[in-house]
Amino acid sequence: MKILYNGTVITLDPANPVIHRGVVVVDGDKIKELGTEELLAKYPDARRIDAQGGLIMPGLLNTHMHIYSAFARGMAIPNYDPRTFTDILKGLWWRLDKLLTPQDNYYSALVSGIEAIKNGSTTLIDHHASPNSVEGSLDELARAFSQLGLRTSLCYEVSDRDGLKIARAGIEENRRFARWCQQEKPQRLAASFGLHASFTLSDDTLKACAEAAGDTGFHVHTAEGIEDRDFNLQHFGLPVVKRLDKFGIWNPRSLAIHCVHIDQEEMELLRQRDVSVIHNPESNMGNAVGRADIDAMWEHGLRVGLGSDGYTTDMFEGMKVANLIHKHGEGDPRAASQVPEMAFANNIDIVCRHFGVPTGRLLPDWQADVIIVQYKPYTALTADNWWFHLLMGVSGGMVRTVLVDGNILMEDRELLTVDEEKVYAQARIQAESVWKRL
Ligand SMILES: [Zn+2]
Q1: What pTM, to 2 d.p., does this model score?
Q2: 83 CB contacts (<8 Å, ≥6 apart)?
Q3: In this predicted structure, what is the pLDDT of residue 332?
Q4: How far apart are CA 89 and CA 80, in angstroms?
Q5: How far is the CA of 388 from the centre of ligand 1 (A)?
Q6: Which residues contact 46 (CB under 8 A, 6 or more apart)?
Q7: Residue 271: strand, helix, or coil
Q8: If you measure from the C-alpha of residue 221 to the centroid of ligand 1, how many angstroms do you get, rounded to a whole number?
Q9: CA 318/CA 232 separation, integer angstroms
Q10: Mean pLDDT for each consecutive 10-residue tract of the chain (438 residues)?
Q11: What is the radius of gyration, based on Cα positions, of the chain?
């Protein structure tokens, strides 16, 4: 049993959002009880974890991530001068992904996972590509995340961009891994069925994916750039969401990533199918693909969550950018009021659907995915303003301690489940080798 104390507890339970001088009691992989410091006497034998006056809160959830992008950091690409989103895909991502070996995949996952932990994320939903080592790639990622102790959902992004053989291998990798998850029920691992994007998928491949997926939810880039919408209208006479709907891609566990260029009818269709949209504002700004119409999505009653698209592992940063992009874009400081609902309520709903366990709130019987943040506010932190403290006062580097399923993954900034120095040393060797092969 463990007991976290000497901090301000932000529960994300709307009925009781903040507990001052709060205590969280963890029994096994679940939260047993919350309360104030009188609870310390009730559990004298529990391992005590001192929050040192900081925040005790649920771990953050990242609902769209690409660990395969890890080694792109600082990589020099000859003659890379992208003008469009397609140029970025062809010049960077579709060159990098082809280079990745099983060993590269494994170390990309380890370093991304370490950064996620250090920034307070406890759950990642990843979307993977390594076209020249498809088979078993999700096992390599699963091995890394299991060692780290993170909660992770994995899929392989099927695409026709590298030919039929690799597309088929991608289908088989998704099918195999999802079936393994169903049968073995591995701790903290889940699967979705990955599709790259409508504009790199033929009708035949989409049909084959739909047949192979069974009741698994799909995870697909949806009208991220205008190119996706234009291509589908031109070649199939349908916008992206409608075309994918023909193949039964949309179900209540499916994730429609980005949705920057969808129209009102497509929004309505996604709502009818109970699909979750994942907003990735930092990536959208970086790729200059436009700004998703969050207000319209809200009016349609869509469930919109927040991901990072591999741009960062710091979801506090993601929230800040989400807050700014819409204020800036609308020219209205009142815009982006939906961000806390996206990052917390909706991401929690999405992750709970995905993993089938309750995580993302500090409540009895929920999974003990908890972080301690070294943040001592100099203004009052209350049930009404906790969000503004997170938005304006906290960043990922302030996270000191992380628990997932009650296991301590990091304590006082020290990783406990892997040797960080050793992993980084090997990752640098892997990255150097990838860069040489570019
Ligand atoms: Zn993405």
Answers
A1: 0.98
A2: none
A3: 97
A4: 11
A5: 28
A6: 1, 2, 3, 25
A7: helix
A8: 6
A9: 30
A10: 98 97 98 97 97 98 98 95 96 96 98 98 98 98 98 98 98 98 97 98 98 96 98 98 98 98 98 98 97 98 98 97 97 97 98 96 98 98 98 98 98 98 98 96
A11: 21
| d(CA 197, ligand 1 centre) in Å | 9
Give the Å distance between the CA of 280 and the centre of ligand 1.
Answer: 8
Rounded to the nearest angstrom, the distance between the alpha carbon of 228 and the centre of ligand 1 is: 14
Q: Ligand 1 center to residue 127 CA distance, Å?
A: 7
CA of 98 to the centre of ligand 1 (A): 16
How many Å lie between the centroid of ligand 1 and the Cα of residue 121? Answer: 18
What is the predicted pLDDT for the residue at 350? 98
Report how far residue 320's alpha carbon sits from residue 391's, in angstroms, rounded to the nearest whole number.
6
Strands of the sheet containing 303-306, edge to edge, are: 193-197, 218-222, 255-258, 276-279, 303-306
Ligand 1 centroid, distance to 307 Cα (angstroms): 9
User: Quick one: residue 430, left, alpha or beta (phi over 0 = left, psi -120 to 50 = alpha)?
Assistant: alpha
Residue-range domains of the chain with CATH: 2-59+358-413 (2.30.40.10)
The answer to whether 85 touches 287, Cβ cutoff 8 Å, is yes
Helix H or strand E encompassing 339: helix 339-340
Cα 85 to ligand 1 centre (Å): 12
Q: How far is the CA of 257 from the centre of ligand 1 (A)?
A: 7
Q: How far is the CA of 103 from the centre of ligand 1 (A)?
A: 22
Centroid of ligand 1 to alpha carbon of 258 (angstroms) = 8
Distance 315 CA to ligand 1 centre (A): 15
Six-digit token string for 39:
């609870």
Residue type, 126: D
